[in-house]
Amino acid sequence: MKITIITPFPEILSGPLSTSILGRAGSNGIVEYNVIDLREFGKGPHKKIDDYPFSGGPGMVMLAEPIFEAFESEFSGVNANLKVILPSPSGVKLDQELSKELSKEKELVFICGHYKGVDERVVESLVTDEISIGDYVLSGGEIPALVIIDSIVRLLDGAINDPESAETDSFSHPLLDVPHYTRPANFRGMEVPEILLSGDHEKIRRWKDDMRLQRTRERRSDLLRGDKS
After folding, report:
1. Nearest CA to 154 among 28, 25, 32, 4?
2. Local structure of residue 8 (DSSP, 8 states)
3. How far apart, in whole angstroms, are the C-alpha atoms of residue 10 and residue 209?
4. Staple partner for 60: which of 7, 115, 120, 162, CB 3.0–4.6 Å?
5. pTM of the model
6. Are 67 and 111 spatial neighbours (Cβ–Cβ below 8 Å)?
């Protein structure tokens, strides 16, 4: 998979994309990251990328022209098969199913907005998918883009060492994941549940099933109702 990210702040991306699973996937050729610095396409001597909104009002809006030119520096014309994602509070909410769908794409493009947002003509002409990571406001699109990218890349073949581990993660099935413990069995008087030390795999499996259901009832009962709102 190839992932292109258009951003005025590429330095925000450099650490996360070169570290841990995202970094290893890049180093191993599972994914190729292509970060385009939007400011190289800014207007005038100060490389301007934003301006005041028509009709007035507070805040600045990102100019359409630098974004179009940054996009066209990599892609010629409109590709109906290319997913161009704008992280946005107006988008559909990210969930595991959407990440799975996007992980099947060969190429993705992310446009990172800032300020009051991007000129709507960018949304109308370039963007194919607006995606929200939650009902709150962040300072820019880089962190939401990284959240979406992380959720996608870890699903690619070879990205994580133990694919079976990912299959039991929360949201990879209808229930939340179980609590996990590792050595030592007794840490400062806090003991691991005895069943996990029993070696009885069937009893452990039933315990985990019960814990998944209990934890989901207590913390995310909306999942049991199938409520995605």
Report:
1. 25
2. S
3. 43
4. 115
5. 0.91
6. yes
- pLDDT tens digits for range 103-156: 999 999 999 999 999 999 999 999 999 999 999 999 999 999 999 999 999 999
Q: How far apart are CA 163 and CA 28, in angstroms?
A: 16
227 pLDDT exceeds 70? Answer: no
Q: Rg (Cα) of the chain, in Å, rounded?
A: 22
The identity of residue 136, as a single letter, is Y
- Of 145, 109, 139, which Cα lies nearest the Cα of 17? 145
Tokens representing 88 are 């946005």
Under 8 Å between Cβ of 126 and 84: yes
Helical pair 142-153 and 20-27, crossing angle rounded to 10 deg? 70
Token pair of 180, please? 């996990």
End-to-end Cα separation, the chain, in angstroms:
30
How does DSSP classify residue 47? T
- Which three-class secondary structure string do you get for 129-184? EEEECCCCCCCECHHHHHHHHHHHHCCCCCCCCCHHHHHCCCCCCCCCCCCCCCCC
Q: How far apart are CA 212 and CA 223, in angstroms?
A: 12
Residue partners of 55: CB distance under 8 A and separation at least 6: none
Would you state the pLDDT for residue 195?
97
**CA nearest 108: which of 142, 141, 85, 74?**
85
Tokens of 143: 């962190």
Distance CA 169, CA 178 (A): 9
Sequence-distant (6+) residues with CB within 8 A of 98 are: 92, 131
For strand 50-51 and strand 61-62, is the pairing parallel, antiparallel, or unpaired? antiparallel
